[in-house]
Amino acid sequence: MHCPFCRHADTRVIDSRTAEDGSAIRRRRQCPSCGRRFSTVETSSLTVVKRSGATEPFSRDKVVAGVRKACQGRPVSDDDLALLAQQVEETLRSSGAAQIDAHEIGLAILGPLRQLDEVAYLRFASVYSSFSSLKDFEEAIAILRAERADRGPAGQDDGLTDGSADLGPAGEVEQAPTH
Ligand SMILES: [Zn+2]
């Protein structure tokens, strides 16, 4: 490994530590030429297989970019998105597979996104699961409502009140006669 300061061709490992969850190894290195120290983090590579069959390294940035669209106008911060991407990566890595389908990333996003913001979740799920009719939305909303009922009365400040306000039009559809 080259020294990032003076580009010396070799560096010495002076300390090596495994992350608590075992997913990474952090090494402290020192350059024998300029004497400066720096750290490297070693993780197993996680390869994503796209629908086309092409592969690319897993990227948290891409997760954030994908979810950000669904979060437009919602009270979701960059920190929230970064944390979500981290949760998604942890979920995928915990499967132990070195190679995953792009489809599995979407699936791993749904859970944490639902915790984060139900409206963003519905938007994302509608694209990811290719909702083709209002019925698909009705079913997804019915599941959210049922699970919310399980959790007891909506909290005072859990953001759900906002969500249901935004869901207004879809809520009306739910009461429309079905055939
Ligand atoms: Zn150096």
Structure described in brief:
Negatively regulates transcription of bacterial ribonucleotide reductase nrd genes and operons by binding to NrdR-boxes. 48% of the residues lie in helices and 17% in strands. The chain is of the alpha+beta class and 179 residues long.
Give the total of domains.
Answer: 2
Count all strands and give the number.
6
Morphology call: elongated
The number of helices is 7
Distance between the termini: 67 Å
Question: What is the H/E order?
Answer: EEEEEHHEHHHHH
Helix and strand composition category: alpha+beta
- Ligands and ions found: zinc ion
Give the uncertain stretches in residue-range form. 155-178
Radius of gyration computed on alpha carbons = 22 Å
Largest sheet composition: 3 strands, antiparallel
Name the average pLDDT: 84
Report the helical percentage. Answer: 40-55%
Strand order of the largest sheet: 1-2-3
Features:
179 residues, alpha+beta, 3-stranded antiparallel beta sheet, 3-stranded mixed beta sheet, 48% helix, elongated, binds zinc ion
Account of the protein in words:
With 179 residues, the chain is of the alpha+beta class. It folds into two domains: 12-43, no CATH class; 47-149, no CATH class. The chain has seven helices and six strands, in the order βββββααβααααα. A hairpin with a 5-residue loop joins strand 1 and strand 2 (24-30). Residues 155-178 have low confidence and may be disordered. The structure holds zinc ion. Zinc ion (ZN) is lined by residues 3, 5-6, 8, 31, 33-34, 36. Keywords: ATP-binding, DNA-binding, Metal-binding, Nucleotide-binding, Repressor, Transcription, Transcription regulation, Zinc, Zinc-finger.
